[in-house]
Amino acid sequence: xxxxxxxxxxxxxxxxxxxxxxxxxxxxxxxxxxxxxxxxxxxxxxxxxxxxxxxxxxxxxxxxxxxxxxxxxxxxxxxxxxxxxxxxxxxxxxxxxxxxxxxxxxxxxxxxxxxxxxxxxxxxxxxxxxxxxxxxxxxxxxxxxxxxxxxxxxxxxxxxxxxxxxxxxxxxxxxxxxxxxxxxxxxxxxxxxxxxxxxxxxxxxxxxxxxxxxxxxxxxxxxxxxxxxxxxxxxxxxxxx
Length: 241
What we know:
The protein is α+β, with helices and mostly antiparallel strands and 241 residues long. It folds into 2 domains: 11-104, Orthogonal Bundle (434 Repressor (Amino-terminal Domain)), CATH 1.10.260; 109-238, Ribbon (Umud Fragment, subunit A), CATH 2.10.109. Helix content is 26%, strand content 25%. Helix 2 crosses helix 3 (52-59).
């Protein structure tokens, strides 16, 4: 059985690692001046990693940083998560309180559901339990009961357009409501993250295998394997006249 080949980091993931390493080195010097040593062994314990090797791999761009890990490093190094990944600046606001990192969503219950981009949905998908979505330019009332982590997306592309009269269809521009708290079932419309991009498809189980199926038959189905994460189930759609 051959060894699994580790994928190369994308350019944005590489830049995250470079920024993290710069912050690490700067903080290490600051602490040394104060008579404190910042070691990878100490960091691994504080970050909850089993070995210090994981710290080294993140610092040296061997494995990609996810949101959960970025938040942990931000707390350890006394910096903002957006210092490591600038895209997070508009998505989340963080502050350290005691030994925990609290996420301030800048959200109000009467605002409804935040409409975010597919890029932001990918970031959120990495750490749904770690933070709430807190920044959105538009808010939509949810037409049905939904969980507090529900978000909305504007459909892009034509892979979910049906050519059958009367069938469910999701043309570009329509708004879908995605609830991460709803259980995924065979036939559910879902939003999933595949490596670095997010897609909207139908979840199917067949002969022990799981698939992401487009409605538009001109597109190919996608098998769900390692690296694919279901971000949430589509619970409603809004389509302006």
